[in-house]
Design brief:
Blueprint (H helix, E strand, L loop, with lengths): L9 E10 L2 E11 L4 E5 L6 H8 L7 E6 L2 E2 L5 H7 L1 E4 L11 H5 L6 E2 L2 E2 L1 H13 L17 H13 L5 E5 L7 H16 L3 E5 L3 H7 L2 E6 L2 E7 L5 H9 L4 H13 L2
Parallel strand pairs: 3-10, 3-11, 6-9, 9-10
Antiparallel strand pairs: 1-2, 1-4, 4-5, 7-8, 11-12
Pfam families: ABC_tran
GO molecular function: ATP binding
InterPro entries: AAA+_ATPase, ABC_carbohydrate_import_ATPase, ABC_transporter-like_ATP-bd, P-loop_NTPase
């Protein structure tokens, strides 16, 4: 079976998520394949971060179906997603700034030998993983509080990659980075895709999307508002979907309900 004919790595159908009276996600659909970067764009409040948290099991969906490599799965809890091979890096890195780099990477998954922390093995694995990434961190025993913004982001990504996931979720990973740091991170995203990972990239920056994404899915008011091929779709068309100048799925659903009833 070729990659093109294989079922998506992850497929979402009819995903709903509400917080009280606020409908964060309504009937959302999305597919991500191995070796593909799918970007998600939308205005603030469109549901992008909520979508990441639903996939990661942090915020269980109220309704919807999830398939992993073609089979139904439960994404109700973070350990379910980790067991499948899904890892996430959030806007807030959630690193423990009083711990060193090794301690952050292995927090909650420490290696022990005869009941004692195996600091040597964890240190070597940390060094090996970081050496494969584009931002250098000379001292893995340095407290993360002493690191620069791009080093912090790389530690967050390294922690997600430690479990060798098949799908990586990145929520606004370039937000706090300068131009050179953004370039390094986008190079890493491209390399992960070339290594066969699926990547879901949340971003407000069209330049980042155009640089690395294969497809971009637009959310508007918590609903799908178009999925576009990044290489063939004009910039203006994607922007129109984001702003609502062309409400693809949203307006179509409204029109259907008016014509055929609820």
């Amino acid at each position: 079976m070729t990659q093109a004919s294989a079922p998506p790595l992850l497929a979402l159908r009819g995903v709903h998520k509400s917080f009280g009276a606020v409908h964060a996600l309504t009937d959302v659909e999305l597919e991500i394949r191995s070796g593909e970067v799918v970007a998600v764009m939308g205005d603030s409040g469109a549901g992008k971060s909520t979508l990441v948290k639903v996939i990661a099991g942090v915020e269980p969906a109220d309704a919807g179906a999830f398939r992993w490599k073609g089979r139904p799965v439960d994404l109700a809890r973070p350990h379910h997603t980790r067991d499948l091979g899904i890892a996430a890096v959030y806007q807030d890195s959630a690193l423990c700034h009083n711990l060193d780099v090794v301690g952050n990477l292995f927090l909650g998954s420490e290696i022990r030998r005869l009941g004692v922390l195996d600091e040597g093995t964890m240190g070597r694995r940390t060094r090996s993983l970081l050496d494969s990434l584009p931002v250098q961190i000379p001292d893995v025993r340095a407290p993360v509080a002493s690191l620069s913004s791009d080093q912090l982001q790389i530690v967050s990504v390294a922690r997600a990659l430690l479990g060798e996931p098949e799908l990586l979720l990145l929520d606004e990973p370039t937000q706090a980075l300068d131009t050179r740091q953004v370039s390094n991170l986008l190079d890493l995203v491209e390399r992960l895709r070339d290594d066969g990972l699926g990547v879901l990239l949340i971003s407000h920056t069209m330049g980042d999307i155009k640089a690395v994404a294969d497809r971009v899915a637009v959310l508007r008011l918590g609903r799908n508002n178009g999925v576009f091929d990044v290489n063939t779709t004009p910039h203006e068309q994607i922007i129109s979907a984001i702003t609502g100048a062309t409400d693809h799925a949203v307006s179509q659903r409204t029109a259907n309900r008016e014509e055929y009833g609820p």
